[in-house]
Amino acid sequence: MQLLAFNFGFKDVIDILLVAVILYYTYRLLRKTGAANLFWGILAFIVVWFLVSFVFQLDLTGALFDRIISVGAIALIVIFQEEIRLFFYRVGSRFSSWKIFRARTGEEDARSRQQILEITQACRHMASTKTGALIVLAGGGSLKEIVDTGERLDAQVSARLIENIFFKNTPLHDGALIIRDGKMVAAACILPVSKDQTIPQYYGLRHRAALGLAEKSDATCIVVSEESGHISVAREGRIREVKEDELFLVLQTAMTGVD
Questions:
Q1: This prediction's pTM
Q2: Is 123 exposed, middle or buried (0-12, 13-18, 19+ CB in 10 A)?
Q3: Residue 214 burial (CB count, 10 A)
Q4: Which residue among 50, 59, 154, 176 is buried most deeply as judged by most CB within 10 Å?
Q5: Domains parsed from the chain with CATH numbers
Q6: Is residue 157 within 8 Å of 240, Cβ to Cβ?
Q7: Phi, psi at residue 188, to the nearest 5°?
């Protein structure tokens, strides 16, 4: 039996690196949904198919594997339709959030800074009183499907109004407050809950909802814990606790893109 002879060159190195990057980010995406074992099973099947068809050149077995691969490609699209949608949504939101051709004015910077101060002040006060809160700062996307689940608002960003919305037992306290284009546009909104199996058990439903939206969009989500009073920020598919004096800088980066 004669094995295939390979002419290995620079183009092949690039090819291998691209495949490795694709596999790595596919694994990261599936790990968030708890489907990592399925990923390894599919990868093992592809390796066996490659060995059978291209290395050992077993024609009959290779033909069988080719049939399974052709049908399996359609099956994978059906199985991972939510993950595929998530991937393209995040890629699209990254492009839509680019503001390369629009320079920020001093007035816009001052307005953004004031809004950040209002949000920070509200979060600090709610943290001190252990008032649970979930605030979403929309990025480049409109989050229309999220806004439509809540009660519409058209209000300026105000610390007192934010605190009033999340005051316990008020009609709008249960859900997320959406801030978009410098306005509080909706409250009591429902967010998608993350399926990430690695989230610490002490995180509650607000944290899981914040991470769920951060996984699917370029939004920044702020959570004030009702149990501990700690403040957490979910962004770019990750969530972490932040100190009160750190919150302003995190929000400044999220809203203006300036560190």
A1: 0.66
A2: buried
A3: 24
A4: 176
A5: 10-79 (no CATH), 106-256 (3.40.1700.10)
A6: no
A7: 60, 35
